[in-house]
Queue: 2 jobs
Job 1
Amino acid sequence: MLQPNDISSFWLPFTPNRAFQASPRMLVRADGMYFYDETGRALLDACAGLWCCNAGHGRKPIAEAISRAAHELDFAPTFQFSHPMAFALSQRIAAMAPDGMDHVFFVNSGSEAADAALKIARAYFHKIGQGSRFRIIGREKGYHGSTIAGIAMGGIGNNRKHFGPLIPGTDDHLPLPYDAATMRYTRGEPQNLEKYADALEGLVALHGAETIAAVIVEPFSGSGGVYGSSKSYFQRLRAICDKYGFLLIFDEVITGFGRMGYGFAAERYGVTPDIINFAKGVTSGAAPMGGSIIANKIYDAFMSNSGGENNIELFHGHTYSAHPLACAAALATLDIYRDEGLFEHALKMEKVLEDAVHSLKGAPFVADIRNPGFAAGIELEADPKAPGRRGLDAIKLAFHEQNMVVRVGGDTIALSPPLIATESDVSKIIDGIRGVLSKLN
Ligand SMILES: Cc1ncc(COP(=O)(O)O)c(C=O)c1O
């Protein structure tokens, strides 16, 4: 029977549940830059919820759009049918992507976008008569979600190693473009990373180009510890993919919708991928939605190599693909980003965050500080006896003593404030982190 204080029925994802039950952290309301707990205490949101609430919390136009949709069209199937908002939204999103990427496949999360990208990449090569290409090359510390496809392409050991055989053809990963010996405390984007992209040549030598379908990378690794890369790195990766005919997939689930000062980081880096995955910021976290933006050459290959027009071109999709409530939320969110100039604001705020976060160098247990885009990673020295313990302590101290919600991956504190953050919000966040670090042991 359910007891008044029994909170074990909800098995929390990616959480030490027993520790949480001993000292829960409940969020009951959110507005602007703040969450509120059940006592009404305000908690500064240093991580945009989970890298997603880019427009800040409690945005009325988004809530009203969702409400209107719920009243007018609670659901419409997008298998064999559709609804106008799905088309309007796909056009808006495609218009933000590089030229030549005019098609959007909708799913409900970043993980599902990883599955969609893998399937579309493999099926594309089937369609064009190169079915021997099945390998998808990921990157060390890459995070593409928690489904089997996401963890297989991802490069985080703890996410992979408990689950038996994953997906054939997904075991190769490029090196993370990072060298702890020379790159600690780099401000902004590290440079001279081309050799890390050149490692792809080694995999070509090992497996043969004719077995490789695609390479998937995040413009910066978020959940893997906040590691940035640079324009020349991505351009080199694009050039090698072109040389051998591989698709290049950008997982922009975190970096999309303003985190790097642009609609997509692809624009920042002047690189046109073949597939861009998105989720999170597309609805500012207010409704579940994800998707893949698809290059015309891929879409056209499906349309022209699937036989008669009554044939389904891609056997993939979800009941809630392009759900009306999510589409309404996304359209209202994109209006806010445009009308409030939030991507441009985020670009300006990068330097503010950079200066503020690097002032933590020398604070207790700080081992490195990295700041790609409007985000930062503060890597802590791991407790040799209990890796991850200091990271968890940082969450608890931030919540209970500094009135802040922070995100941690292992022992790295990840900061990604909502894009509405002001200079004063950034200083409050850094002061809070300083307070947290002073209490760690
Ligand atoms: C780069 C990246 N890809 C995919 C995902 C998975 O998204 P979701 O949690 O919506 O499945 C995430 C989530 O953090 C992410 O950061």
Note: The mean pLDDT is 97.
Job 2
Amino acid sequence: MKKITIKDVEISYTVVERNVKYPRLELKSGCLVLILRRGINDEKGILIKHSDWIYKKVMEINRIRIYGSGIEPVIRTKDLFKETVNKYLRLSETELGVKSNKIIFKTMTSKWGSCSAKGTITLNNYMTGLPARLIAYIIYHELVHLQNRRHDNVFFRKVQKRFPDYKKLEDELAAYWFVIKQRIEHM
Ligand SMILES: [Zn+2]
């Protein structure tokens, strides 16, 4: 882990060399990753150029970490988890008038769920540690993707109609992400 101080905050980061055309900054599970083209090593220059963006992102992550400091993952059996998923799946399909094709459970390191063009919904095993209302939200979100592939205004209007506080739910999900991931890594 390397460190850089932006404003008054010490920020850790890692450098990855890849065959990319342009340098890139990524935040992976709350860690800053600088992706550089092989042979290019102007890391400080790139970090300074993007320091406002980095600072904003890191502050956001810290806010979510603090927000999540009091929360605990939900403990439920695999059966109960699948039952909960099926319940919200049926409910949301009826509400939206859509039908998913297939449900796949998978451990994913960067997202809660996804929806393929063929209607396959992939759900992260980490979801088992979420309260039911957040499971409901993720499923609804993925099913809306059957009608709107992209996260455009139409998409979020639809989500907001059913979950007026979806922005708060997204924050909660980000907070649970850290808590659940940490719990699993230290098991
Ligand atoms: Zn989405």
Note: The first strand starts at residue 2 and ends at 6.
